[in-house]
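Entry 14. Ran structure prediction on the chain below.
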Amino acid sequence: MNAESENSRIVELETRLSYQDHTIEQLNDVVTSQQKQIDQLESDIKRIKAHLKTGDSNIARPEEESPPPHY
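Output, structure tokens:
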């Protein structure tokens, strides 16, 4: 193998590594963003559950519902 082809191969490997580093950074950004969304959704669910347990909901239970007018 001559020096020119070896140099070309090194440049190709460095280029691939650069693209891989960029892709890893993008994936990390996506994972971080999704984790923030998951954390927010979990917080929202906890708040909704607590709200429903206190009975402050405007939603009537099925046994509390009056029958529809056509009955």
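DSSP finds one helix and no strands in the chain. Will compare against last week's run tomorrow.
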